[in-house]
Amino acid sequence: MYASILNITFDSADARNLALFWAAVTGWTAAERDATAGHIEYSVTPPGDSMPRLYFTTVPEPKTAKNRVHLDLLPPDDDPEAELARLLGLGATVSDRQPPGAGWLVLADPEGNEFCLEGAGVTVG
């Protein structure tokens, strides 16, 4: 028997805002899980309540360094440039640290958490 991953958890300054960003990115459903003052929690759940969920909890300290774990996103096969434009429109930013010749683009969510958009055709215009 093996353990299953329930959540991929993000500490955040604003759990609600970050959960709504990731719900828009993934098309999954955001739901408040805890509304205790100073300890707001939200989950972003895939269709059918499958796992893992993205989980966001409000913490008092700011993000201070590069993520040790990050998400890699697959754009639609037909138009990775349109997916990049959509993500930027939702509030993602392009990182200034791009590996030369990589087949992905490093982005950051509204709180600076890095993630990658896969696809060799992805370029910054």
What is the alpha-carbon Rg in Å? Answer: 15 Å
Query: Given the structure, what is the number of helices?
Result: 2
Main β-sheet description: 4 strands, mixed
Uncertain regions spanning at least 5 consecutive residues? none
Distance between the termini: 48 Å
Order of helices and strands: EHEEEEHEEE
Task: Specify the overall morphology.
Answer: globular
Description:
Helix content is 18%, strand content 34%. The protein has 2 helices and 8 strands; from the N terminus they run βαββββαβββ. It has helices at residues 15-26, 80-90, and strands at 7-12, 29-36, 39-45, 53-58, 71-73, 93-94, 104-108, 114-118. A hairpin with a 2-residue loop joins strand 2 and strand 3. The radius of gyration is 15 Å and the shape is globular. The termini are far apart.
Summed up:
This protein has 2 helices and 8 strands.
Please write out the topology.
Elements: E1 7-12, H1 15-26, E2 29-36, E3 39-45, E4 53-58, E5 71-73, H2 80-90, E6 93-94, E7 104-108, E8 114-118
Parallel strand pairs: 1-4, 5-8
Antiparallel strand pairs: 2-3, 3-4, 6-7, 7-8
